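Hello everyone,

My group is preparing for a crystallization screen and wants a predicted model to guide construct design. The compound we'll soak is manganese (II) ion. Before spending weeks at the bench, it would help to have a computed complex in hand. I've included the protein sequence and the ligand's SMILES below. Output in structure-token form would be ideal because that's what our pipeline reads.
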Amino acid sequence: MKIAIGHTNMDLDCLGSLILAKRLFRDHKIVKSRLIHPVARNLYNLYQNHFDFINPKDLAGQKIEEIKILDTSSWGRVKEYFSHISDSDPRIDIYDHHPAENCDILGATLHQSSFGSNTTHLATMIMNQGIELTTEEATIALTGIYADTGKFIHENVKAEDMRAAAFLIESGASLKLVKSFLATIKDDEQREILHAITKNLVTREIQGHSILLSYMELEENAQGLAAVVEKVLDLENPDAYFAIFYIKRSQTALLIARSQKERIDLHDILHVYGGGGHHLAGSAKVKAAEGVHFFDDFCLFLENTLIPAARAVDIMTAEVNSINENETLLEASIYLEKIEHTGLPVTDNEGMIAGFLSLRDIMKGRKADQMHAPVKAYMTRKIITASPTITIREIERIFYKYHIGHLPIVDDKKLLGIVTRWDYLQFRRSLVKLDGISDDIIKTAG
Ligand SMILES: [Mn+2]
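Reply:
Good plan to model first. Here are the tokens for the complex, ready for your pipeline.
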């Protein structure tokens, strides 16, 4: 017997991988996990006959010759299957997109990829072999790709994910169905909790970060809380969100956290509470007699441990080009051309900021034939400046509100530096590095 298995607690990428494995390895039986992740239950219920699953217990007494393992390379996530296999020495091939260092299945051949979804890997093989898919297979596979790539917006997304998706759409995948399978708020309890939370959100500025907090008491543990937390995160877009659910029955505080900033490293924070996850998503369970006390303690802990947010002083250009207000427009235009800027701060004889001169101001002078007039006659005097301690979030707000591209940073009136749109974008570009972190780690973390 030859078999293909995914990981325990099958999710959408796992099912996408399995449906394609069924076509790639035609003599293999597909084995289902005891557990199906809540996100995948709808799809599973509707399409289970397309997989033609066998149960792990059907493996008992069988001689297993070959095993294909999909979407995981960690022993802990496949041992439910192996507990039914004995008296076999199968050849094992793993097709996985998690980092290779996580592989702890001995004697297996690892076919590793770094795609956003594991389904992409198998879809690429299907494309290369010229296999034609049914519309149902294409829909199941495309759902897997959408799920693990965060609808193609996670940092782990590769061009191959998009190529595979294009192929699946050509094969007749239904985006309408994909969309319905991706809905994460599925039952009334989740919806009620979501509504209750949104009425009780608190945003606190902690160490310059915008931190969203919520506290809610539940009689007992509820399904799909992580999905609710994701929804709230989407709605509010804080730097980080810490949701605390106090489960009265078990006297446990369940902490589910999401961060959108490298500086707020949840792996470090939740580690203190015995929790798990990675730096942008995680959860922890803490025994606590009083939920409210735990919440207060946790807020205090954040005040004391969060690494301060980046500020203007961290991203500004300190050696700022400026021009004295008594220079002429002609000199200013030659200087701007030389430094290839579109504007620059103007200072007085004491080095204090006096205004801002842009190419547009110079144009006005040129039209009036006033190129020998001093800069101060044409510069903009009412300018927006900021202190070196303002946060990146505030800088973003200022750019957005005033439609400016240069923000002089001043201490009192002394010019210290400048933050341009470019500085801001460079900072944001480098902010979130999710390489090698797949969505199902995020999903399992809470
Ligand atoms: Mn996956």
